[in-house]
Amino acid sequence: MTDPKDFIAGTDSNARKSPTRVVFVTRRTSAQVKVTDEDQLQTYPEVLFRAAVAIEVLGIVLVLISLLFNAPLEGLADPSHTPNPAKAPWYFLGLQEMLHYFPPVVAGVLIPTLVVIALVVIPYFNINVEAEGLFLKDRARRLRIFYAVAIGLSVFLLFFDVYVALVPTLVVAAVMLVAANSSPESSSAFRRYLASKPLSYWIMTWFLVVLFVLTAVGTFFRGPGWSWVWPWRS
After folding, report:
1. What average pLDDT does the structure give for the chain?
2. 96: number of Cβ within 10 Å
3. Which of 21, 186, 210, 231 could disulfide-pair with 220, CB 3.0 to 4.6 Å?
């Protein structure tokens, strides 16, 4: 029988690996807590100082860019002459590109609303304290769900001929398949990296890649009448 004095509480300070701790307290001894110091501890004002430095560096970079390059501004607005094409600011060009494929209610109201709702709701699902890889547990079931979602999304994009979003979607899906066939013990560091990524990582990656492609297409590949043009042709 183990001596009650041998019980030690809190031997692991990693909250991800051991979120729940059990402490044994006997009548004759007090609780013992053994902790290890973190390599780095983000505290005030160190975090605020780093944020201030990042803001200053960003401001200096923007000033240098403004001194070296002219802003791509057009002439004064003429109510009697509407430019063709009339492009939105770059941060709305992805949305304007979707308006080329979907009805205005879908592209301008439904999709942005669903994106905002998803960003609010998703954190309340799939609680993954340890941030484990998506396919490390229950691989067969998760692969079936992945195939269903990927095929359904691809068919939806094909139905509306949204090839500019279909291509990055298939690329991200292919990378996810590589992750599904990788493990933390893989010989390749890249495959180990993919295998360790959770669901939130893949959702955000797909969102950013599609948004980047839509913005790039709307910026460089759309001409008069929102027709497809090559950037190197006038």
Report:
1. 82
2. 20
3. 231
How far apart CA 159 and CA 64 sit, in angstroms, is 45
Please give the C-alpha separations between residue 190 and each of 3, 107, 179, 209, in angstroms, as whole numbers. Answer: 47, 36, 9, 19
Q: Are 212 and 205 in contact (CB under 8 A)?
A: no
Q: Are 223 and 98 in contact (CB under 8 A)?
A: no
* Residue whose pair of structure tokens reads 């439904």 in the numeric block: 110
Alpha-carbon distances, residue 43 vs 34, 35, 183 (angstroms): 22, 18, 35
Burial 170-186 (b: 16+ CB within 10 A, else e): eebbebbbebbebeeee
- What predicted TM-score, i.e. pTM, was given to this entire model? 0.67
What confidence score (pLDDT) does residue 119 get?
A: 79
Name the maximum alpha-carbon separation found in the chain: 94
Domain ranges of the chain: 87-226
* Residue 67 exposure: Cα atoms within 13 Å on the Cβ side: 6
Start-to-end CA distance of the chain, whole Å, equals: 86
If one counts every other C-beta atom within 10 angstroms of the C-beta of residue 150, the result is 17
Please give the structure tokens belonging to residue 195. Answer: 């295998």
CA–CA gap between residue 101 and residue 98 (Å, rounded) = 5
